[in-house]
Structure prediction request, 327 residues.
Amino acid sequence: MEQIPGITRRIITEIRSPEVLRRAEKEVLFVEKNKIKPLYIGNEDYPIRFKECIDSPVIMYFRGNADLNTSKIISIVGTRNASVYGRETTERIVKELSEEYKDILIVSGLAYGIDCMAHLSALKNDLKTVGILAHGLDLIYPHQHRAMAIDMLENGGLLTDFMSETKPDRQNFVKRNRIIAGISDCTLIVESAGKGGALITGFIVDSYNRDLFAVPGRINDTYSQGCNRLIKEKKAALVENAEDIMREMCWKTRPQKPPEAIQRTLLLNLPAEQQQIVDILAKSENRHLNALSVELNLPVSKLSSLLFDLELDGIVKAIPGGSYKLI
Prediction:
């Protein structure tokens, strides 16, 4: 272990500690007993969107049946003190998304207010939904959401990077927010005060260079100040309905017959990875960068380099919203 860069003698001593090994064995037994799936970096089921996050978790614990690498994932978060306006807006947008995409995954934090409404709306519209926890999988917090969490295990799941016996301490919720931000293609904030967890999530999303959306509110409403601020500072795009999200994400694609220019492109003698990109783009009007990354199982950094080469060759073109199409 001393040959591994960054591994100090103190860390080596801790790894070899009998107490550390005992705790690890206890966690393994807990995972096996409760049919929990450990997701670690290098595992083929590890959420590929995290590979571009500098603080991505080394290991996470998942229980459920959702595909964490499905083609479309959106996080929906907001204040615990949701108004009627916030709850109705969340429910309407989730319903509109379900009418277009039955495979879209709705992610939130299992908290009161907007989070709870996002999960419930997904379940109501037969969408899978995943709750990101700020504690271990040996408990549900708040306990009032236990029944909903059980339903989510049958149609989605629960995900955390905390071991069992970890309590829902205040600092864990801030750490949890990076999972909400990193696992999805985009994040929608429905209501948020000038300070709070939803706003922190929004800033994390922005730092990851992911798409951020916010529902505007009246300027005097306490729980609209955060959303209005994000829109004002141009960190979030203003959203009134699901159509706004789909347009910005370029999710509304219409299969069409490739024009002659594209057919000529397919005849080029391209390297295998570039040809795979061209083949996918030829099947639709355009594709978002994150969607391409998932379909090709390639890190965004490598994919961006391949797309840049194709742009220089006059084969693909970047369009607003982080999407690409064939010329």
About this structure: The chain has 13 helices and twelve strands. Residues 260-326 form a domain with the Arc Repressor Mutant, subunit A fold (CATH 1.10.10.10). The two ends are 51 Å apart (CA to CA). Residues 73 and 185 are 6 Å apart (CA to CA).
